[in-house]
Write a structure and sequence with these properties.
The protein is mainly beta. It has 2 helices and 23 strands. It starts with a helix and ends with a strand.
């Protein structure tokens, strides 16, 4: 009797497995290449991208916008995947009020489970403002000479050689920036944040984020870093003129202030394991603040 019961159970499991396999919306994949070219001048490129990686390179010798990529859809059969893929297309549309402002987006019901996203590579000439919103995917931008505004729900952001100002809102992911001349504003909920060689002002509001920053702010400039949970590693020029204020609720402040010209220095509760340090650097002028609720702060000069 027990053998009969086990046999029936095995048959049921096999039947269920077959049903699940037959209705798997991700069983098959279909892909298609896409490309767009625009020779007319544009001042602003907006990108509305639900799923997929976005890579942008600015070439000062380029005289047109070139867009290339691959779009993906899934289905439980090859025919279904290809039919689902046919519902999507990539569009480059001019603004009704300004033909110099164009939007790159994906048409179709991108919220469907069988939409696999699209990876896109874009080459731009100089002088284009970027406004990018990505649901899930990584964004990489190199060499842009104008402002950059990026919103990412889930994904990493890599920026390098940016001359304009940068505004970032990132929910979950890492940020890495090198060689930025403009000012930066960042709101980041979780991940890691690394900025190397910034010569503008900086404003960071972060949740669960470890921050590593090397910054040379302008005269009378401001650097403000506010983290809920995470460490802060800050490197600033020893000749910067400004007020310095570092504070951690649970953690310690370490590093070396040797070489800085400081006055009005206060360390609490003491200089051995301080949780709060304030001082005036080289007579004052600008402001550098770094604060974390849970985490250590390290400061160094350059």
């Amino acid at each position: 009797m027990r053998e009969i019961g086990m046999s029936i159970l095995a048959s049921i499991l096999v039947l269920l497995a077959g049903c699940i396999s037959d209705t798997n919306p991700y069983a098959e994949k279909a892909t298609a290449d896409f490309s767009e070219t625009r020779s007319e001048d544009i001042t602003t490129l907006k990108i509305d991208w639900p799923i997929g990686d976005v890579t942008i390179v600015v070439d000062s010798d380029a005289d047109e916008v070139t867009i290339e990529g691959v779009i993906t859809a899934y289905g439980d059969t090859t025919e279904d995947a290809e039919a689902n893929l046919a519902e999507f297309s990539v569009e480059l549309v001019e603004s009704e009020s300004d033909s110099d402002v164009v939007t790159l987006s994906i048409s179709g019901t991108t919220s469907e489970d069988w939409f696999g996203g699209a990876d896109v590579e874009i080459e731009l000439p100089d002088g284009v403002v970027l406004e990018i919103e990505v649901g899930t995917g990584d964004v990489t931008i190199t060499g842009n000479t104008e402002d950059v505004d990026v919103i990412i729900a889930s994904g990493d952001l890599m920026l390098s050689e940016i001359e304009g100002n940068i505004d970032i809102d990132l929910e979950d992911g890492d940020i890495e920036m090198t060689t930025v001349e403009g000012d930066i504003q960042i709101e980041q909920s979780s991940g890691n944040l690394t900025i190397d060689d910034l010569s503008g002002e900086l404003d960071i509001v972060a949740g669960d984020v470890d921050v590593v920053v090397s910054v040379s702010p302008p005269d009378e400039g401001t650097v403000a870093i506010d983290v809920v949970t995470g460490s802060i590693d800050l490197t600033i020029p020893m000749d910067f003129e400004g007020d310095l204020d570092l504070e951690t609720a649970i953690g310690v402040i370490s590093g070396s202030l040797e070489g800085f010209s400081l006055t009005n220095t206060v360390a609490e509760p003491d200089y051995v394991t301080p949780t709060h340090i304030s001082a005036t650097m080289n007579g004052g002028g600008g402001v550098v603040t770094a604060e974390t609720t849970l985490g250590d702060i390290t400061i160094a000069g350059m």
